[in-house]
Specification:
The chain is α/β, with parallel strands linked by helices. The chain is built from 10 helices and 11 strands. It has 2 domains: 103 residues, 3-Layer(aba) Sandwich (Udp-n-acetylmuramoylalanyl-d-glutamate--2,6- Diaminopimelate Ligase, Chain: A, domain 1); 106 residues, 3-Layer(aba) Sandwich (Udp-n-acetylmuramoylalanyl-d-glutamate--2,6- Diaminopimelate Ligase, Chain: A, domain 1). A hairpin with a 2-residue loop joins strand 5 and strand 6. The longest helix has 13 residues.
Length: 248
């Protein structure tokens, strides 16, 4: 069996991709060379990420946001930047794999578990594809903001009820503003997600919830970063996270 076959089999099982009904195609998206010894991980597909993989002579790229999504016309219209991105992969024999919701929800290397670990808060119970945390000591909104800012490349923004204290918080990476009502129903004091929606700003005030927007990209860096470390330690393979900064 090829390195690619064994590698993806183990990774698909570890991330439990069969447990998710996702709108992203999880697993292998573009087939490259079957043998490789170097992997690059990243948040989102882009030419900059692909060129970084070429420079590093990587044979596999693993991202959170892949090229192909269910309901999309792709690959039936392989044009524009999609065509250019696929050509770059094929020209260099690079495999592309993507893990969307499985990499949000994973309890060890997932985006949400990783963010909570980075800010020193426990993973207490599942919430959507994220988690609820109940810190041993309540935090003020400013304390939580400072903890988030220490582990983020860009400052976060706080909305809603900033009076505190925060005894519990829900964390859902990405564009999860629509989970605000569910967070309120769960009784948490704060909600942390990647990006807000226009209604969520006023809604968080009226719900009495402290709402933190940390950036969609920034909220989904922890998973690919932890994945690269996991691959180095458990797959005996050279793996590197490549950051392509994006404050949105």
């Amino acid at each position: 069996m090829s390195v690619r076959h064994l590698f993806l089999k183990q990774l698909n099982e570890y991330l439990n991709i069969e447990a998710f009904e996702d709108y992203c195609v999880n697993g292998l998206q573009v087939e490259g060379n079957p043998e490789f010894d170097r992997v690059v991980t990243g948040v989102s597909v882009s030419r900059r990420l692909f060129e970084a993989a070429v420079d590093r002579r990587a044979g596999m790229i693993i991202v959170h946001h892949g090229l192909f999504w269910k309901g999309s016309p792709h690959p039936f219209h392989l044009t524009g930047i999609l065509r250019d991105r696929v050509k770059l992969l094929l020209d260099h024999g690079i495999n592309l794999a993507a893990y969307h919701l499985p990499l949000d929800a994973h309890p060890e290397i997932g985006n949400n578990a990783g963010l909570l670990n980075a800010i020193g808060c426990p993973v207490s119970e599942p919430f959507d594809v994220g988690y609820i945390s109940r810190p041993d000591t309540p935090l003020t909104p400013e304390e939580l903001r400072e903890r988030l800012n220490r582990c983020l490349p860009d400052p976060c923004t706080a909305y809603g009820d900033l009076s505190g204290p925060i005894r519990s918080l829900a964390v859902v990476s990405g564009g999860a503003a629509g989970r605000l009502e569910s967070a309120r129903a769960a009784g948490v004091d704060a909600f942390v997600t990647g990006e807000p929606s226009e209604p969520s700003v006023r809604s968080s005030e009226e719900m009495g919830i402290c709402y933190f927007s940390i950036g969609h990209y920034n909220s989904e860096r922890p998973g690919p970063m932890a994945l690269a470390d996991h691959l180095r330690r458990h797959f005996d393979i050279d793996a590197e996270f490549v950051d392509v900064p994006n404050a949105i």
